[in-house]
Write a structure and sequence with these properties.
alpha/beta; Alpha-Beta Plaits; Rossmann fold; 7-stranded parallel sheet; globular
């Protein structure tokens, strides 16, 4: 809390200024209580400079030696017919295996839900040394308060060093609440994770994607990150192995009853496959110009068994719905084949598709940045080129 020097004259200006009521006068001297947030508002108003913030590093550092292990939160998806592990969970385990090996620690999967024993074999095959399972019909449907309470309970009990979450609707909802309850940081939408000097280096785009920032958390545990789907490759590192299973019984708190699911409706994906699950993606940019240009992409996608995405510029022009956007503020894809048509290749778009296996680009500007990341590049008018390519594909299939 704020520090008060002996030259305090008890004028009371700091008491009136404090927005948290953390200061009072005792024997004509200012005294701070536990409500002090060290905002510093009182420091500037003190006429005798008797108030000051603690010097950096003055507080004793917390002993972090008890925090061990890399955890991956495994999200269970429900398509209305059956439940399964979302593929991003296997991606987190694959990267987590690499991080855990560098740290010399265990890799643990955390799975919360109903009948989660069905997933143990797959989680083990993707590298998990240990599985923490919270298994109950009460967790069949995702509930923020219930899942957050379960995760916080587990984290406080077992003290992991690193916890990874998927950057999905559930992961983005769950992880900030856990971060807040544990008073630790959270790095969102990471595109890279590594270990340096025993710390987790969390890499993500910053300043609108113009730079890549490396973020670390040296003083608090656990170190927590969310990771977008399709950023890391899935690796079967331990096929046939079986992880140690730790079953935990955690009651759902009464507060979780504030939210109840009355009914579910699963809307079909517009325009075919989900972008983040498609093996072939054709993405159009400003260079497609109009709906007719995207109609050509749709025709070509049908011939190749793929789906169509778009750049931010095309979305802003109303040529495709927001759910079809590929890039930093849209969907991250890792297709086997990615074809960028009329897309210049801004950094914000690149971070959403650079993990695809084979990238083909078509753009009339020979200096377009997209040609720096593609395997095959064609300089020309995409609207003139695509009809010929489509005809060639049809002839080849016949």
């Amino acid at each position: 809390m704020i520090q008060v020097a002996s030259n305090c004259v008890g004028c009371g200006k700091c008491v009136n200024t404090c927005p948290f009521g953390a200061l009072s006068l005792v024997n004509r001297k200012a005294v701070a209580n536990a409500s002090c947030t060290m905002c510093g508002a009182c420091v500037s108003v003190c006429p005798v400079k008797a108030l000051s913030l603690p010097a950096a590093g003055a507080a004793a550092k917390k002993d972090l030696s008890a925090y061990k292990g890399v955890w991956a939160f495994i999200e269970i998806s429900d398509n209305g017919v059956e439940q399964s592990v979302r593929p991003v969970g296997f991606e987190l385990l694959s990267k987590g295996r690499e991080l855990a090996d560098q740290l010399g620690e265990e890799l643990c999967a955390v799975v919360i839900g109903d009948n989660v024993q069905n997933y143990f074999a797959d989680l083990s095959a993707y590298g998990a040394d240990k599985i923490y399972a919270v298994n109950s019909p009460a967790y069949h449907d995702y509930n923020t308060l219930a899942y957050a309470n379960a995760m916080v309970t587990l984290i406080k009990k077992y003290n992991p060093s690193v916890v990874l979450y998927p950057s999905t609707y559930i992961g983005r909802d769950l992880s900030p609440r856990i971060s807040s309850e544990l008073f630790v940081g959270l790095t969102a939408d990471c595109t890279g994770l590594s270990i340096q000097d025993g710390l987790l280096i969390q890499t993500r785009p910053a300043f609108g994607g113009n730079i890549m920032a490396d973020i670390k958390c040296p003083d608090y545990r656990p170190q927590m990150s969310t990771v977008r789907p399709n950023v890391f490759k899935k690796v079967l590192s331990r096929p046939g192995a079986m992880a140690q299973v730790v079953n935990e019984v955690i009651a759902v708190p009464a507060s979780a009853g504030k939210v109840r699911i009355i009914s579910k409706q699963m809307d079909p994906v517009s325009g075919g496959q989900k972008l983040d699950e498609a093996e072939v993606v054709l993405a159009g940019g400003r260079g497609m110009k109009d709906k007719a240009g995207f109609d050509m992409l749709e025709t070509m996608a049908q011939e190749l068994g793929g789906t169509v995405g778009a750049s931010r510029a095309a979305i802003d022009l109303g040529l495709k719905p927001k759910e079809k956007q590929v890039g930093q503020s849209g969907v991250t894809v890792a297709a086997k084949l990615y074809i960028a048509c009329g897309i210049s290749g801004a950094v914000q778009h690149i971070v959403g598709m650079e993990h695809s296996d084979t990238i083909i680009a078509v753009n009339k500007d020979a200096n377009a940045p997209i040609f720096n990341v593609c395997k095959y590049g064609f300089v020309g008018d995409v609207r003139q080129l695509l009809p010929k390519v489509i005809d060639g594909i049809k002839k080849a299939k016949n």
